[in-house]
Amino acid sequence: MIRFLRNDAEVGVVDFCDENLNLLAHAQSIELDVGSRCGGHGVCGGDRIQIPEHILSTLSAVTEMERRHLSDAELKDGWRLACQCYLNGADLEFCVALK
Fold first, then answer.
1. Domain count, the chain
2. Domain of 72: which CATH number?
């Protein structure tokens, strides 16, 4: 289960985790706009989400596209691009913050 938060308020819940879908696709499955303007190709950098520290290791590795849009400090603080993050397991429950 993935809970999406904006300003500490829940704005959407996805009741499944599919390791074949990126986090943008999970948000789109409930018609939640997370800011992607390029269709999920990592070009715009608009779909920034903050992942809790204990979940970071369960996600795919940071991509070159993310490194172009996010500073080292942002990456260290758990910021990722939703279109570039894939889950490395389906039995997860966590919250992500939207920018």
1. 1
2. 3.10.20.30
Residues 18, 87: Cα–Cα separation, whole Å: 7
pLDDT in tens, 27-56: 999 999 999 999 899 999 999 999 998 889
Task: Please state whether the predicted TM-score (pTM) of the whole model is above 0.85.
Answer: yes
83 touches 47 (CB < 8 A): yes
Cα–Cα distance for residue pair 81/99, rounded to 1 Å:
10
The 8 Å CB, 24+ separation contacts for 69-77 are 69/42, 69/45, 70/45, 74/48, 77/50
Confidence of residue 88 (pLDDT cuts 50, 70, 90): confident
Structure tokens at 70: 């996010």
Residue 89 has pLDDT above 80, yes or no: no
Report d(CA 59, CA 70) in Å as an integer.
Answer: 16
